[in-house]
Amino acid sequence: MREKKLTTAAGIPVSDNQTSLTAGERGPTLLQDHYLLEKLAHFNRERIAERVVHAKAAGAHGSFTVTHDITRYSKAKIFSKVGKKTDVFGRFSTVAGEKGSADTVRDVRGFALKFYTEEGNWDMVGNNTPVFFIRDAIKFPDFIHTQKRDPQTNLRNETAWWDFWSNVPEALHQVTILFSDRGIPRGIPYMNGYGSHTYSFLNAKDERFWVKFHFKTRQGIQTMMQEEADRIVGKDADYHTRQLFETIEKGEYPQWTFYIQVMPEKEAESYRWNPFDLTKVWPHSDYPLIEVAVLEMNRNPENYFAEVEQAAFSPANVVPGISFSPDKMLQARIFAYADAHRYRLGANFERLPINCPHSGVHNTYQRDGMMRFDGNAGAAVNYEPNSFGGPKADPAYKEPPLKISGDADRYEQKRGVDDDYIQPGNLYRLMPKDEQKRLIKNIAGSLKKAPVEIQKKMIAHFSKADESYGTGIAKECGL
C-alpha cells in the first residue's frame, strides 16, 4: 500500500510529527513551529457544545421500506407505493445524562430518525415512550433542570424530581412507564419508538387526518431489572452503544414495524381526550394500528463525530403530506430543536453531509455564516423577488387552512378533572401482579429519598390513579 503523506490542514507536507521546533537541544519551543500551534489550537476546539438533553447516543444508518398502501391518508412521496425504499439515519439516546454517562440507567430514550426523501428530509424526533412528563413547553426548562445536576452539589437530586412531579400531576403517566420494567431497555433493538406527538397527514385531496407514529420492535420487547442494570453500569457504561454497533457489524440488522393511528380531522373536537395532549395515548380500541412499513438499521457510522454527534434532527423538518398539529409541545419543539443546532453547530448545520438532503435540492437564499464550506451559491442572486431566475415558492405545496377560533389566553389542555389519573391507572391495572410489585419497588426506592411531605403528595396522586398503586408505594416507603 502506498504510504500517505501527513500534511497540515492547509495541505502543506509535515516533516516531523514527533518533536517540536526548539532553540537548541534544550532550549525553549519556538513560536514559529506553526504545525505544533495548529495541533494544539485545533485540539482545544475539538469539542462542540454538548446537547442539553439527549447527549449520550448511538447511531446507525438504515432503510425504510413501505409494505402497505396508505396513500388515502398521505400524499408524501415516501409512502407513494408499496416496496418504495428510503435511506434513514437513526440516533438513539438517553435523555438526562451527559455525553459520558452510562447507558443502562433508568431513563426515557430518544428515538430520532432522519428520512432522506426525494422531497427533502423528514425528521421523526421521538422517544421510546408514547407520552411525556408535561404537555406545555413553558414547563420544559424547569423540568429538565430537575433532571440535571443540582446547582450547589453538582449531584443528581431525586428530591427535585419528585418535588416537580408532585406539583405536576400530568407527569403521572410517564412516571409510571419510566419506573416500570420498560424504564431500562435491554438494548436499542429491544425497545419501541414513538412519534409521541400528534401530527397530521394530508392526502392528494387535501383532506387532513391526525396521526400518531409507532415503531414496534421486531426483536420483541426486552428489559433489564434494576439490579442487573446497576451491575452493568460498573462493568460497561457503554453497553447499549456497544451492543448496537456489534449487532450491526455481525450482520444482524434490527428491525421495527412502522404503524400509524389515524383520526379524521373532525373527530378531534369531540374525542374523550384532548388528542393533542402529549401526556395521553389514543387507545388502540378507538384508533387501531395500521401497518405501513419496515425500518431496518443495517450500517454503522464510519465516524462517530461526523455522523452521530453532528446529526441534527428537528420536528420542523416535514415533507409535503406530513405536517403539524396544535400540540403545544410540538409547536415549541419546531423552534427549539433547530435553534439548539444553530447554537451547537452553526447557522449552516443542515449543509453538513449527515444532515444534507439526499435529494440534492438546496435552493435557498441563505448565504454566508460561520463554516460555510460549500461554494456559498457562487454568483447566484441572493434576494427575492428577482428577475434573474432565482428559485421561487410553489403554491402547489400550500396546505389547506386549519380552522382556529377562540380568545388568546393561557389554557390548560385537559378536558376533565380526572384526566391526569385515568390513563396511568389503566396502565397500572394492565400490568401483571409481579410487574406491579417491581414498579412499586422501583418508585419507592427513589421516592423515599425525598422529604416525607413530598412522598405524601406523590402517594396521593398514585392513589387517585389506583388505590392499590398508592397503598403499595406508601407501604414500601414506610408511611
Topology:
Elements: H1 34-44, E1 57-66, E2 85-94, E3 109-117, E4 120-127, H2 140-147, H3 158-166, H4 172-178, E5 193-194, E6 199-202, E7 208-217, H5 226-235, H6 239-249, E8 255-264, E9 290-299, H7 304-309, E10 322-323, H8 328-345, H9 419-430, H10 433-447, H11 452-465, H12 467-477
Antiparallel strand pairs: 1-2, 1-9, 2-3, 3-4, 5-7, 6-7, 6-10, 7-8, 8-9
Helix pairs in contact: 2-3, 3-11, 4-9, 9-11, 10-12, 11-12
What would you say about this model in short?
The protein is an alpha+beta fold.
CATH architecture classification of the domain at 57-133 and 184-358: Beta Barrel
How many β strands by DSSP?
Answer: 10
Task: Tell me, briefly, the overall form.
Answer: globular
Low-confidence stretches: none
Main sheet properties: 10 strands, antiparallel
The proportion of residues forming helix, as a percent range, comes to: 25-40%
What is CATH's topology name of the domain at 57-133 and 184-358?
Catalase HpII,  Chain A, domain 1
Order of helices and strands: HEEEEHHHEEEHHEEHEHHHHH
Question: So, the CATH homologous superfamily of the domain at 57-133 and 184-358?
Answer: Catalase core domain
Rounded to an integer in angstroms, the radius of gyration calculated over CA atoms is: 25 Å
Mean pLDDT: 95
Give the helix/strand class: alpha+beta
Distance, first to last CA: 72 Å
Q: Beta fraction of the residues?
A: 15-25%
Give the count of helical stretches. 12
At the first level of CATH, the class of the domain at 57-133 and 184-358 is Mainly Beta
